[in-house]
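Try this one yourself first.
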């Protein structure tokens, strides 16, 4: 007869139940997960009531999630887990542009655009001119790279959040392609800071912590090129009131950019703009080692 399990011996017993797993990685992940999960409960002396509350919370996170409402992803984001994984999987000290989380507002099937196009689709706001260059780790241009970009409007809303208000399905998002010199450029409107969704279960955590729910102004990019690792990232407005306290911890210093304000005049694309406008210029470095 096996001896009664104690608070300490149960961990090893559970871990041993994975000895029969045929996939080594599966076993490694679960043995470690059991260790940390059990240590966590012992560490905080978790009560049964607290665990029931946690299970109810997780159930509600699952129930509210759908293809358009990504509460599971939001939980990972607000706990810093998404950015932790980004950091774990990024080689320290490399010149490659830092990655930053995808977020819930990426949409597959977005329209393609030509360099120079206005991708705002008629949404009003302060004009923004984005110029970018995609290079490899030696600084050589990456021609033909696909640049997916998306951002909010001047009130902090994405197109998918206001389908009733907008004429078209897509606005402030497009897929561009770099020219022979690795360059891309487009016109849009300037985004603004916005809160992460707080009307679901994740809002309870943020209210409990009394913490900021805001994301500083940013533009998203997803770069893909044959022979290179694809890069999901964001560029943040360095002077934003919410910079360095992003609700999802993505606003790392190396991704903080100058969104430069200009008086009316000639824009980077040579057109004359008769209202104040903003420019954003960035060089993205891709890792040569293909996935
Ligand atoms: C975003 O960047 O769009 C985003 C990321 C995490 C939570 C909410 C929004
Ligand atoms: Fe965003």
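Now uncover the answer:
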């Amino acid at each position: 007869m096996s001896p009664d399990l104690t608070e300490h011996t149960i961990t090893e017993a559970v871990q041993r139940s994975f000895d029969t797993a045929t996939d080594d990685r599966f076993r490694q992940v679960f043995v470690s997960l059991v260790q940390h999960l059990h240590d966590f409960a012992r560490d905080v002396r978790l009560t049964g009531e607290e665990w029931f509350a946690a299970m109810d919370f997780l159930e509600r996170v699952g129930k509210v999630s759908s293809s358009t409402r990504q509460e599971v992803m939001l939980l990972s984001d607000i706990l810093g887990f998404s950015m932790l994984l980004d950091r774990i999987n990024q080689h320290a000290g490399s010149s490659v542009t830092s990655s930053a989380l995808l977020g819930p507002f990426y949409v597959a099937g977005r329209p393609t655009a030509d360099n120079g196009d206005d991708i705002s689709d008629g949404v009003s706001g302060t004009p923004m001119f984005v110029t970018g260059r995609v290079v490899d780790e030696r600084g050589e241009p990456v021609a033909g790279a696909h640049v997916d970009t998306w951002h909010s409007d001047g009130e902090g809303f994405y197109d998918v959040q206001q389908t009733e208000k907008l004429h078209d399905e897509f606005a402030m998002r497009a897929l561009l392609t770099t020219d022979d010199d690795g360059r891309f450029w487009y016109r849009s409107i300037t985004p603004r800071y916005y809160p992460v969704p707080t009307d679901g279960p994740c809002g309870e955590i943020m209210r409990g912590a009394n913490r900021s729910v805001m994301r500083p102004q940013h533009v998203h990019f997803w770069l893909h090129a044959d022979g290179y690792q694809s890069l999901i990232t964001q560029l943040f407005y360095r002077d934003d009131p919410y910079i360095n306290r992003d609700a999802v911890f993505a606003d790392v210093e190396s991704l903080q950019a100058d969104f430069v304000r200009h008086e009316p005049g000639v824009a980077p694309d040579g057109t004359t703009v008769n209202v104040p406008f903003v420019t954003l210029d960035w060089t993205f470095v891709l890792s040569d080692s293909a996935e």
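Discussion: Residues 103, 105, 218, 220 surround fe (iii) ion (ligand 2) (CB under 6 Å). Residues 1-46 form one domain.
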